């Protein structure tokens, strides 16, 4: 959810609060369902918080339209590893290798916006607004700025004091639909949530290396993936030549409207123009094909559904009350 989202953005292995606690999937899912977040949590303690974050996000989007994908990727990488606690913003120190230095996180994009928004709210209300909430609010604001539907974000998260590179164990783009669904379900998200959240691929890019085999040697056949539209194969081959020099090139995950947050992603899948294998397989798997069809069809409620799924994901493993802390600087534990 690239996002290089699937390179990246999904899951596994959990820590909670300031102690390292290994949790099974059912406990993690329970934590997601029973969080005590609330909309407008800062209405009294820092009434300007949401508008300050929105202003910072709008200003960044005006000069960098890739920020929407960047923030979505930060959100997924945060929530699916240890819970939505901003643990992936913490920098490595001589005594601790943090999540940010794990391979999937090396290309996270949008940290500068989080820092800008944090500085603004710290000036207005020192020590009140968590970095975890800034991630959630800024991501929503970027989605809306890119044309997506507004959704209210419950807040009240606190920031983790724990961040370990060793806890980042994220699957690659070759995950099957069934394996991906299992990973989502382990986080309290159902298969409809999964298909909806993968709609984040309506913006963002993927490197050639993550779909190269679909162009030249699908399943060891020495040919391209027959499920990919021939016109797309030829277009992608021009960007990703059959040489190692092209593996770092990028293409838009949505070949329709690259920077608009809309339902174009699903419409592209129906035309066999999905870039990542996991994306295209959504249209063939009997458990997901109907969902893709409904999100691509006339009267699609993708915008509403996406917001609901993001709110649900935003509950995963949250710290509240006296847990964790409110970081003064998002990249450092107080």
Automatic annotation (TrEMBL):
Reaction catalysis annotation: 2 a phenolic donor + H2O2 = 2 a phenolic radical donor + 2 H2O
Residue intervals of the Plant heme peroxidase family profile domain: 36-334
Signal sequence bounds: 1-17
Keyword set includes Oxidoreductase: yes
Main location: secreted
The entry's keywords: Calcium, Disulfide bond, Heme, Hydrogen peroxide, Iron, Metal-binding, Oxidoreductase, Peroxidase, Secreted, Signal
Matches recorded under PROSITE patterns: PEROXIDASE_2, PEROXIDASE_4
Obligatory cofactor(s): Ca(2+); heme b
Localization terms from the record: Secreted
Family annotation (Pfam families): peroxidase
Cofactor note: Binds 2 calcium ions per subunit. Binds 1 heme b (iron(II)-protoporphyrin IX) group per subunit.
Source organism, top-level taxon: Eukaryota
Alphabetized InterPro entries for the sequence: Haem_peroxidase, Haem_peroxidase_sf, Peroxidase_pln, Peroxidases_AS, Secretory_peroxidase
Gene3D superfamilies: 1.10.520.10, Peroxidase, domain 2
EC annotation from Swiss-Prot or TrEMBL: 1.11.1.7
PANTHER family, alphabetized: PEROXIDASE, PTHR31517
Family under the similarity heading: Belongs to the peroxidase family. Classical plant (class III) peroxidase subfamily.
Annotated function: Removal of H(2)O(2), oxidation of toxic reductants, biosynthesis and degradation of lignin, suberization, auxin catabolism, response to environmental stresses such as wounding, pathogen attack and oxidative stress. These functions might be dependent on each isozyme/isoform in each plant tissue.
Protein name, entry field: Peroxidase
């Amino acid at each position: 959810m690239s996002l290089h989202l699937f390179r990246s953005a999904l899951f596994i292995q959990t820590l909670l609060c300031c102690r390292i606690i290994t949790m099974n999937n059912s406990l993690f899912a329970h934590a997601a369902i029973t969080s005590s977040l609330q909309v407008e949590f800062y209405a009294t303690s820092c009434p300007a918080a949401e508008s300050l974050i929105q202003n910072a996000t709008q200003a960044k989007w005006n000069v960098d339209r890739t920020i929407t994908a960047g923030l979505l990727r930060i959100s997924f990488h945060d929530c699916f590893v240890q819970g939505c606690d901003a643990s992936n913003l913490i920098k490595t120190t001589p005594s601790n290798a943090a999540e940010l230095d794990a391979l999937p996180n090396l290309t996270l994009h949008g940290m500068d916006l989080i820092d800008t928004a944090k500085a603004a709210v710290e000036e207005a209300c020192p020590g009140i607004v968590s970095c975890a909430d800034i991630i959630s609010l800024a991501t929503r604001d970027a989605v809306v700025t890119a044309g997506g539907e507004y959704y209210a974000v419950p807040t009240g998260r606190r920031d983790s004091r724990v961040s370990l590179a060793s806890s980042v164990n994220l699957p690659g783009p070759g995950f099957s639909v069934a394996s991906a669904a299992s990973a989502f379900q382990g986080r309290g998200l159902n298969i409809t949530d999964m298909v909806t959240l993968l709609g984040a691929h309506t913006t963002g890019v993927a490197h050639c290396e993550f779909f190269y085999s679909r162009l030249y040697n699908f399943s060891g056949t020495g040919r391209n993936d027959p499920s990919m539209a021939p016109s797309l194969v030829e277009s992608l081959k021009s960007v990703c030549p059959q040489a190692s020099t092209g593996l770092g090139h990028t293409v838009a995950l949505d070949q329709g409207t690259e920077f608009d947050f809309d339902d174009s992603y699903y419409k592209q899948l129906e035309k066999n123009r999905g870039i990542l294998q996991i994306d295209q397989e959504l249209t063939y798997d009997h458990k997901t094909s109907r969902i893709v069809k409904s999100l691509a069809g006339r009267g699609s409620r993708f915008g509403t559904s996406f917001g609901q799924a993001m709110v649900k994901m935003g509950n995963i493993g949250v710290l509240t009350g006296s847990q964790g802390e409110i970081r003064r600087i998002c990249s450092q534990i107080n």
